[in-house]
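Support request, please re-run this one:
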Amino acid sequence: MSQASVFWWQKYGSAGQIAQAVVALLGFVAILIQINVIGKNAHEAGARQTYQAYNDLEFRNPQYAKPDLDRLKAGPATDLVQYETFVSYFLYACEETVGSFEHKREWQATCDYDLKGHLPFLCEKMATEPVYLTTYSGVTQRWIATELQKAGVTAPDCKLRKT
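Re-run finished. Output below.
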């Protein structure tokens, strides 16, 4: 009696079993994709909330949004501390939004626009406390360095160049 040839699917199970395994695998992949999308959406929502909170802070503190650094330094020390905190929150908000929306250039343009008024402060801060900017990501540090260079803001005077 001769042995019948065995098809490949007979070695690994019936066609129904193979189809069931393929469907289960596709379901698992779909769940992984869904988890990734949910995580991305949550990160974007958090970034929007952070930036919205910064906008609220900016609205309540216009003296820090468009600062007169000489006046802030001449006033009470608490004003300068509050301004430094304002700038820190701004940088954090930009770090979050630009990181979350890296393919949407308008977020970077918004942060670039708002950063310009804070460049003299950041220049002075870098000159007096170089460790200050190390609390931010390398991307943020490079962004600030690039914007300082573009605006011509350099130590020791740390003044914005008139454009």
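The helical segments are 8-12, 15-60, 62-65, 69-74, 77-100, 105-115, 119-128, 138-151. The mean pLDDT is 87.
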